[in-house]
């Protein structure tokens, strides 16, 4: 007797949910038609209630999956540096100052050239 009452209550809740979703679908389609001029050709009263509930559950599941992936991307921790990567990091840090020293050397050479020949003026 309790199982039958439980099934009846669940069935009523599903029917209520399907009816509300059907009303919201009708409102949304009406809004699309009135505001944007888009007619999808759907008639909510002809769509079976199980299809509406299934589509709503699938949409909710998709939204949760997107939210989880965004949160994962935002709060993703950086991977720990491995011992093999440390050598590469040292090589990169050594190569960077070498690049910054090259323009300084060129400037020093240009200054020496100007000091040796004060009559020569740069054209640019």
Helix share, percent: over 70%
Give the number of domains: 2
Largest sheet descriptor? none
Rounded to the nearest angstrom, the distance between the terminal CA atoms is: 98 Å
Secondary-structure element order, N to C: HHH
Number of strands: 0
- Global outline: elongated
- Helix vs. strand class: mainly alpha
Mean pLDDT across every amino acid position: 77
Oligomer: single chain
Strand content: under 5%
Question: Low-confidence stretches at least 5 residues in length (pLDDT < 50)?
Answer: none
Report the total helices.
3
Cα-atom Rg, whole angstroms? 35 Å
Subcellular location: Nucleus
Pfam families: LYRIC
Main location: nucleus
Keywords: Membrane, Nucleus, Transmembrane, Transmembrane helix
Protein described:
This protein has 124 residues and is an all-alpha fold. It folds into 2 domains: 2-74, no CATH class; 85-124. Helix content is 77%, strand content 0%. It has helices spanning 2-36, 49-74, 83-116. Helix 1 (2-36) crosses helix 2. The longest helix is centred in the N-terminal third of the chain and has 35 residues, at 2-36. Residues 81-124 are annotated as: Disordered.
